[in-house]
Structures are given as structure tokens and as C-alpha cells.
Specification:
Distance between the termini: 62 Å
Number of strands: 2
Structural class: mainly alpha
Shape: globular
Number of domains: 1
Order of helices and strands: HHHHHEHHHEHHHH
Strand order of the largest sheet: 1-2
Radius of gyration: 20 Å
Helix content: 55-70%
């Protein structure tokens, strides 16, 4: 039985490069996390989040939710690696500025689509918040830890990943295939930023001050279901569209205490 791809498809199917992307992404994540969490300040943050997560993992419903989310996410990513990624990746040399530009464009276009989805489908909005029941699972954690980035209804896991992976695929149609390094770095940043947003982080000194601020702002979003800060990669779109929230609600001037906390 011949299961080979038709010639017209096979010539564009770069499965080796897709495999390189997977291996390089896993290696970069592992090495990067090892190095980052070797720093005293981030090591303290890791220990804090690990301790809180260990307590939550004693609850059966928490473990089941984590497992379902991880399983659905893995299957979607596997399908993407097999069916889509080989057609949109290249090993052609690119200048460093083009690589940086591609990474920035992918992340910010994705963040725009995620902002719209998060604000208008997951929360109360003129559209009626059709997916609020789904997102409510994630908001059960009012003061999340790093592991809660995966505490999601499995359909929300798929929506978030589909927005990110779909953004890469759509942009590849417009901008051309993306270099291996571009996809690896972009995926690493996507995962790390999303996880870091949920970090419990007490250290507030240079050079960790911005990291604490970004995590704090997402905790403001989790604290109540009517909070702002709908972006995930940055707060750019929240500032542009009036949903930037320091803890006082949308479009309100932050008080002194909230400003210091941020």
C-alpha cells in the first residue's frame, strides 16, 4: 500500500524542518528555564509557584482539568506539526532584523486577535459573552500561580492555541515561509509569556521589576470577572482601547496604592 504524498505536495512538505522546530523548541525551553530559574530572584519565584501548585494538585477536579487541557493542547499541536508546519517553514538564511521583525509581527498580530476574543467572547460585551461559561473555568483561580496558565476548559485551550498557530499560518501566506529560528523563538516566547503572566511573584527589584508588573496586571484581571487587561503578550491593546486596568476598573485613574503595587 503506497502512502507517499503526491509529488506536488511532497515537494513543499518540509517534515525534517518541522521536526527541527519541535526539537529546538523543547531544547530551548528546557535550557532557558534552567538558566533563568538559576537566578536567585526567579528561583524564589519558581519555589513559591511550585508550592502553591502542589497544594492545588491535591484536589481531584484540579488535576482532571489540568490533564484534559494538556491532552487537548498536545493533540492540537501534534496535528499542526504534521499537517501545517511543514508547509510554512524554511531554512533559508534571513537577516537578524528580518527575524526580529517576523517575531514581533507574529506575536502582536496574535495578541490583537486574542485581545478581541478574550474581551468580546470570554467576558461581558455587546456580543453577549457567548463563551463566558467556558472562560469561567480559568477564572476559578482568583489569585493564580504559574501552573494555572493551563487550568482551562479544553475548548479554551484549543481556541487559544488555534489563534496563535493560525496566526503563524495566515501570516506565512502573506509574508512567505518563516525561518526555523523565527518559529522556535516565537513559540518559546508565546509559552513563556503566557505562563509568566500567572506567576505569583514577590520580588520587585531591578532587573525583575517589569516581570513582576506584567504578572501583577494579569492577576488584576483574574481578581474579578469584570476586570480589564485582556491582552496576553502585552498591554498595548488594552491601552489603545481603554481596558487598561490597574485594579480600579477600566478608564479610571490609578490611585497611589495601586500604582505602587504595580
Amino acid at each position: 500500500m503506497d502512502i507517499s504524498l503526491p509529488p506536488t505536495i511532497a515537494v513543499h512538505y518540509e517534515w525534517q524542518l518541522a521536526l527541527y522546530v519541535v526539537v529546538a523548541t523543547v531544547a530551548t525551553l528546557s535550557l532557558g528555564r534552567y538558566l533563568l530559574f538559576s537566578l536567585p530572584g526567579l528561583r524564589q519565584t519558581k519555589q513559591l509557584n511550585k508550592a502553591v501548585a502542589a497544594q492545588r494538585m491535591t484536589r481531584d477536579y484540579y488535576v482532571r482539568t489540568q490533564w484534559r487541557s494538556a491532552t487537548w493542547g498536545f493533540l492540537l499541536q501534534l496535528a499542526y506539526v504534521v499537517l501545517v508546519l511543514p508547509f510554512i517553514v524554511t531554512d533559508e538564511a534571513r537577516s537578524w532584523w528580518r527575524t526580529l521583525l517576523d517575531i514581533a509581527v507574529i506575536l502582536m498580530v496574535y495578541d490583537f486577535f486574542y485581545y478581541l476574543t478574550h474581551r468580546f467572547l470570554f467576558h461581558a460585551s455587546p456580543l453577549g459573552a457567548p463563551l463566558v461559561w467556558m472562560h469561567a473555568v480559568h477564572h476559578q483561580q482568583k489569585n493564580p500561580c504559574r501552573r494555572d496558565s493551563n487550568y482551562l476548559h479544553p475548548l479554551e485551550t484549543c481556541i487559544g492555541l488555534a489563534l496563535f498557530l493560525g496566526t503563524i499560518a495566515l501570516l506565512a501566506l502573506v509574508m512567505g515561509k518563516f525561518q526555523v529560528v523565527t518559529i522556535v523563538v516565537t513559540f518559546v516566547l508565546f509559552l513563556e509569556i503566557n505562563e509568566h503572566n500567572h506567576d505569583l511573584m514577590e520580588i520587585d527589584r531591578f532587573p525583575f521589576k517589569y516581570l513582576r508588573h506584567s504578572a501583577y496586571m494579569h492577576h488584576v484581571h483574574h481578581a474579578r470577572f469584570t476586570g480589564g487587561n485582556f491582552g496576553t503578550i502585552s498591554l498595548l491593546y488594552d491601552r489603545l482601547f481603554g481596558t487598561y486596568d490597574t485594579g480600579n476598573g477600566w478608564r479610571k485613574v490609578p490611585d497611589t496604592e495601586s500604582s505602587k503595587a504595580g
